[in-house]
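Long-time lurker, first post. I've been practising inverse folding by hand and with some scripts of my own, and I keep getting stuck on stretches where the structure tokens seem ambiguous. Below is the full token string for one chain I'm working on. Before anyone asks, I'm not after the true native sequence, just a reasonable design that respects the backbone. If someone could post their per-position residues I'd love to compare against what I wrote down in my notebook.
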């Protein structure tokens, strides 16, 4: 009988749930729907999101020793010495992705942090000058002509406010944002409000081509071109 190694890999993704959030946290939260009511609900959500990722990402993530930690420590900013709010963080040294255990963070941040993992796996291609050029060309067109026409959902405000409208943008953040938009589109476990609408998606077409190529390279571990054989029928 054929085995299903990819399914096995998915099950090997480890996550830890550090503490359980307190009942008073839940009661006094003004956005209760964003919180998980119990650990089972958290597990189901995470598992279905991971199951609906392209399996090659999960495979590479697992075999390179990365883990995903869902946490409610509320301490990530302090631990990583950041003076701004985050939803999650990718720790390249420890090879750990941390995400706060809030529903909307999980829907939006897992894909973004996996974007950082893909960037890392591919040798930090977001630092390649060619990615800079591609993104800057896109940014110019977007900001000049389209921004006012497009009604992006608030979930992409990060990309727009921090990356498209900010001249000092970290190209790795732009890469991860766009990868996250790309991955979220095809992930059936992620609600539609975390995705682009049909009208918006065409603006991302060109960039999605590069994101797709990144996934192809995960598949072949290097450039797919090296696997091509050319025949001369002349
Ligand atoms: Zn990031």
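-- Answer (accepted) --
I ran through it position by position. Result:
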């Amino acid at each position: 009988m054929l085995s299903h190694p990819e399914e096995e890999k998915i099950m090997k993704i480890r996550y830890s749930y550090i503490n359980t959030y307190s009942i008073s946290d839940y009661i006094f939260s003004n956005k209760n729907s964003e919180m998980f009511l119990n650990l089972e609900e958290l597990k189901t959500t995470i598992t279905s999101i991971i199951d609906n990722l392209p399996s090659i990402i999960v495979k590479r993530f697992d075999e390179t020793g990365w883990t995903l930690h869902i946490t409610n420590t509320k301490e990530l900013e302090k631990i990583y010495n950041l003076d701004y709010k985050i939803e999650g963080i990718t720790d390249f040294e420890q090879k750990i992705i941390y995400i706060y255990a809030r529903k909307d963070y999980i829907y939006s941040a897992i894909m973004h942090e996996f974007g950082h993992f893909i960037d890392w796996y591919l040798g930090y291609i977001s630092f390649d000058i060619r990615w800079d050029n591609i993104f800057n060309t896109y940014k110019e067109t977007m900001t000049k002509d389209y921004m006012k026409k497009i009604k992006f959902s608030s979930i992409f405000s990060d990309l727009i406010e921090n990356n498209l409208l900010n001249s000092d943008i970290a190209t790795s953040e732009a890469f991860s944002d766009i990868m996250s938009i790309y991955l979220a589109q095809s992930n059936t476990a992620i609600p539609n409000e975390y995705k682009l609408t049909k009208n918006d998606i065409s603006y991302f077409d060109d960039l999605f081509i590069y994101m797709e190529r990144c996934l192809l390279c995960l598949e072949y571990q290097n450039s797919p071109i090296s696997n091509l054989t050319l025949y001369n029928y002349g």
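A couple of notes from the structure itself: The radius of gyration is 19 Å. Strands lie at 17-18, 67-71, 88-91, 96-100. Happy to go over any region you disagree with.
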